[in-house]
Amino acid sequence: MWQVVGHEEAVALLTKSLMKDMLSHAYLFVGPPQVGKMTLALNLAQSVNCLEPSTSRPCGECNQCTRIAAGQHSDVQVIDLLANASGSGTRKEIGIDQVREVQHFANLKPYEGKCRVFIFQEASSLSPEASNALLKLLEEPPESELFILLTSSGESIFPTILSRCQLIDLNPIALGTIAEQLQQALDTPPQEAIYLARLSQGRIGWALRAARDPQLMEDYTAELGRLASLLDNTLEERFAYAEEMAALYTSDRERTLDHLKLAVSWWRDLLVLKNGNGELVSNVPAMEALDSHARGISTQQVIEVIKRLQDTMSCLDGNINPRLALEVLMLSLPHGKSSPG
Q1: What average pLDDT score do residues 291-316 get?
Q2: CATH of domain 8-169
Q3: Listed range (110-124, 207-221, 248-262) with the worst mean pLDDT
Q4: How far out from the chain centre does Cα 156 lie?
Q5: pTM for this one?
Q6: Considering only CA atoms, which of 223, 226, 231 is closest in space to residue 333?
Q7: Where are the domains of the chain?
Q8: How many degrees, rounded to 5, is the angle at CA 176 between CA 227 and CA 119?
Q9: Which of 2, 27, 85, 183 has the most other CB atoms within 10 Å of its CB?
């Protein structure tokens, strides 16, 4: 039984390919963070190793399925960013040595299942050298091997790698589907489920975590408050924030990018509110601050900040000095009491 929620078209496509024994040797799952990419990848890994007939895969109950679900299957490997040597945070790239290790195992027959599966957690983090090494594997894939690449940005993947993968887009999930899943899986009260679904912006993984972990909601609300306060901060205070984020980027790249993505979401909400569509605001806890700033910042300023945030994330991906990139961002922010429009 497929555990992924809200991606019926993707499941139907993969199920059809499984039944016809026509799976691709490589897939690229593209979608926002926490939308279900890893769940789908693990379900597919279960399907190609499941002991049940093809019409019932994945059963979720056989030895193969349960070992994969528990992360204990020797033929299913997840390739992710390694921890820094200091033990704090992760490296910025998936390196060539990690792909060479994949090459080694790819040339071996499956040990306990029918198929070796290699899941790249964030394929956009592959270094150029690692990408070229992976490309060689995809060009001449060994038998009984399946490669699944996950990314939130297909544009960040080498075009030559893209051309050798079957692309499956995983779009944000309908809020009603997320609310229903929260009620069924976690017995979340209906009103709270609807509220969390709206905050999730279609990311079911985030909604499930928020329902289980109150601290996540506290951290989220606190960060929304910091984003709003930046507009009233002095330049010195803004630079202190940039320094803090740059230090965080050095130890935990993904967490820093999550902060910037939340900032993009906050400013998009501001744009939505200025256009008179308050019911479409995603970051509901920030509504009061958004409403206050919407009256003092022009539409053009909002658009420019969103572009600057996106440019900053691109600069960070391009290994630009993080503190410099973030300080330039701070300089571009308007003050809270600008001209309306």
Answers
A1: 93
A2: 3.40.50.300
A3: 248-262
A4: 13
A5: 0.86
A6: 231
A7: 8-169, 174-212, 214-332
A8: 75
A9: 27
